[in-house]
Design brief:
The structure is a homodimer of 329-residue chains. The first copy, chain A, is an all-alpha fold. The first copy, chain A, has one domain: Farnesyl Diphosphate Synthase (Orthogonal Bundle), CATH 1.10.600.10. In chain A, 76% of the residues lie in helices and 1% in strands. Chain A has a two-stranded antiparallel ribbon with strand order 1-2. The longest helix of chain A has 28 residues, at 193-220. Chain A is globular and about 65 Å long. The two termini of chain A are 34 Å apart. The mean pLDDT of chain A is 94. Chains A and B meet through helix 4, helix 6 and helix 7 of A and helix 4, helix 6 and helix 7 of B.
Chain lengths: 329, 329
Amino acid sequence: MKQYQVAELHEIFNAGLGKIKTAIQRSSPEGLYQPIDYSLEMGGKRIRPLLLLMSYNLFSDEIENAIPAALAIEVFHNFTLLHDDIMDNAAVRRNRPTVHKQFSENNAILSGDAMAFLAYKYLLSAPMQSQKEVLELFTSTAIEVCEGQQFDMEFENRNNVTESEYIEMIRLKTAVLLGCSLKAGALLANSGEKVAAQLYDFGINLGLAFQLQDDLLDSFGNQETFGKMIGGDIIANKKTFLLIKALEKVSGPEKAELDGWLKKSDFNQQEKIEAVLKIYNSLNIKLLTQNKIDTYFSVCTEILESIEIETEKKVLLKNVSNKMMNRIS
Amino acid sequence: MKQYQVAELHEIFNAGLGKIKTAIQRSSPEGLYQPIDYSLEMGGKRIRPLLLLMSYNLFSDEIENAIPAALAIEVFHNFTLLHDDIMDNAAVRRNRPTVHKQFSENNAILSGDAMAFLAYKYLLSAPMQSQKEVLELFTSTAIEVCEGQQFDMEFENRNNVTESEYIEMIRLKTAVLLGCSLKAGALLANSGEKVAAQLYDFGINLGLAFQLQDDLLDSFGNQETFGKMIGGDIIANKKTFLLIKALEKVSGPEKAELDGWLKKSDFNQQEKIEAVLKIYNSLNIKLLTQNKIDTYFSVCTEILESIEIETEKKVLLKNVSNKMMNRIS
């Protein structure tokens, strides 16, 4: 059985994406399909479809059979970005105007909707043996992603979010789609239920570690390599793991200071970032977050090791997860 | 084989709807599920699920097996209302505030999204033999409904919409979902392809006649029985069949007058309605529209007659379509 390299899988996926983009460009009404084409043009790391293909390749090398599901996952992911960017009022994504800014809010709503259904169209076009199972997994995952986004929005207006609530939110909003990608790849290759469930759990823990790392980088990353401004979460009072832990641990005059910064609507951005980082440092938040990331990542590694497949087949997933965790951007 | 009456089917459907509403009410986060519950509470005529059940009952009386698909169609239809009402900036539906007014725009976007996936969840929960076919039909229909909504929005900014463009728009926006409901019911009962296709065409022609009648009632209906204000379309310059035909036929001073009303942003509503209705009357628009409705409705009736099933089984669909066309609201 051929073991594909990441670059090869990326290339095969891009070829499939190119085909559906051509079909989309030729579809009418243009006003509906142009924003879809624009959103798929944006690049992105294609992490989810690559995980799906890697997982599939653990059990089969007929990669073409997994491409429709990989496309479905990527189109679904981009659908969530279109709608989330409206809800979060985000103007820029991947250095380009978001769809609702480039086109209109109505376009972003409706083209997003069409993408959700296109995802099903691609899923249904695959020659699948475990089609019903994959469709059920995809559907329950999609509902969970909506639930995660709702929790995320509700947390904006709360100052008493607990750690476990936060972990549940990022599990729903981020981790389940990684788990779904990995499990779908396995199911499509007839891996059997046990290993499919293990790969799902691997994805969940990877997703949690990945999102926590994202939180950490936003406050402690390197400005030049991170790509976006350091401290964006701090300025926006975003309920990240860091802020939640800080609010939990802080006391005395530091508590008064942190509360003050959270309430202040008129402030110098750099001043707020520096002040909050100073509090984070005094509370050891960076180490605490890093420990949490390490915990999830060890679980992730253990699960991968426990999967009963030849070690050399697992190298790709191991490398990719390592790369995801050592990323600087 | 038991022939169900409309009232019985309605009751069975409502029982199924009650069950999913209970599940929705118990789901978390409440902020996601409450708007869904609200939108399903709104009543409505449940035309689409009833058509599905009637179509199913032509071939089978195991109605319970068709309930999940009937729920999927109704939840999908309500999803489109949530998002359309944002896009059309509609404040009221069925005498209650629309979801984005009652809750928020973000709620209407996200809860709408969740409804789209819930529709698939219900579809997938059915004990189906033709599941893949029904899922493909449902998915392609959903994409067409998005295309129809896009055309509808684009027509708002155009004064040169042709009759055939308009018919294609209402086919996509309204008729395909009626066709899908009828065809899905047939497929689920293993009707065979031929009769499923006939029922689809019956639904398309019924849908076209129904939407044209909606246009007609908005300008020529009885204020008291129609439920909403007569002339709403005229005030909003909505590109209905009536306005498109009027713009096509009008000439001379009447054309100048009609163009004037379309351009005027500051006007007395009653005055505009009366003036435009006078032009419609002089151009015989009411008769012209009625003829078009009659044409589609005859096709509809002919298709139903040509379907090779005992005549007594077809009475229900015949009665319901008659009722839909003689409706006063």
